[in-house]
Amino acid sequence: MKEKRYDIAVIGAGFAGSLTALGLDQLGYNVLLIEKEAHPRFAIGESSTPIADMILRDLAGRYDLSWLYSFSRYGSWQDHHPEVACGIKRGFSYYSHRRGRPFRTDEAHSRELLVAASVSNRQSDTNWYRPDLDAFLVSKVRETGIDYFDQTTVTSLLRTAGRWELEARREKDFQLFSSDWIIDATGSGALLHQLGIPSAGVDLRTRTSAIFSHFTGLKPWQSWLREHHISTGDYPYNPDFSALHHLLDEGWLWMLRFNNGTTSAGLVLEQYIRARLPENKQAAWKHVIGRYPSLADLFEKASVAELPGQLFSARRLQRRAQKVYGEGWVALPHTAGFVDPLHSTGIAHSLSGVERILYAFEEGGGSASSQPRSDFLATYERAVFRELRFIDLLVDGCYKTRRNFDLFTTYSMLYFTAAINYEQKRLRGLFDIENDAFLLANHPRIPALIHQCYREVQEISSRPDSEIPQEVIEKFRVRVKKEIAPFNPAGLLDPDIPNIYEHTAADLGCEK
Fold first, then answer.
1. What is the mean pLDDT of residues 458-474?
2. Which residues belong to any copy of the FAD dependent oxidoreductase domain (predicted)?
3. Cut 0.90: pTM above it
4. Is residue 69 a contact partner of residue 54, using CB atoms and an 8 Å limit?
């Protein structure tokens, strides 16, 4: 059996793996891309953000992938690739539900929070319909001439004489490959296990499970609101054109609509609550949705989409590997660990990893960094672990406060503070890829103030919700507003209309 030799083998052909392979090819490397499944395939990790858009645009320019630019906005996406399904994502929308009661709110939006991330549908972020987008990126890989093997499983890895020897199986056939480097873009720990890298154990605070799928026939949330005479007249956008978060006693429900009639929906449940629900995922899904009349109405005529044709479940979402890089290998962030989908950090975090790994391989085999490649990758590893811990703080505090919507809206502004400041740094040309962590997780002040706010939330939420005095809630709001003031160009916690933020959007410049 003849061995095929490469400079770099990328394992995993999701969007991050394909973009990494395409960037490396542009840098002049001989690249192999291996995927264990076949496209199109079902995948979640679908909610993009302004940060993800910025990184896509930078990757398009830096690595001469001009076609990639159009995927950074809904309008340009529709102009150039309407055949690739996606959805409009104008921002983040949150609705606080009470078990056994239809959703209700008031003129002060006391149970709603809408945070705009764009100024129009055309300039909006997108929900990625991954079966289409991932398949499109693989078509670009093939078009470029990169060797691509799908339905192929890596069965053994051996490092010898400074190179990797890979054995892989496709159905009954075996292939032998050799490469200097392996980039793990699998998004799981399976390949890391083959590399001998154990899990670090789950030392993250957030503890959640999920049940999810794609659905058709799901009633739009705005239609339900109007049918029940709940005004949306002062909304900055249609909430169905956003990342919809329905906050529940058990956790929350995401809804992401695509322009092909499909909606991604998933229950994210605190793990101790999931343990009390029926073991069967279909029964658990129906049990939770049935507790909330408004959600039951939405799903009354909905059915699981043909792709994937079933519900999926994950017992524990949180994971973290012990290492992110080693001799001749490096992993993307989503392979290294994951926290939770609450703040839609997954796509942007993965792209930030693509950006940093490609940077490490610039200059034809030497790092573009002022540091040796090994030093840069060591910095990258420390940054990824710091970023996961930072995201964990931002997420877990929201879980602790979700049953008290005033506390939740206050604490959630900490995420938006971090995101907006990261966006602004990139927009002003001040972003330093060698030193600035994702979401500014290594900022000299922002993480410290979030740690302090998290500790306060821990103390406040240790009491039953009904026993938290309103003055404590208001004091916390005032404190958070004061702490974020130096980093708050968007007027967070001080909107003209309570809980409605029309202008937090980063200006990405004029359209191309």
1. 92
2. 7-195
3. yes
4. no
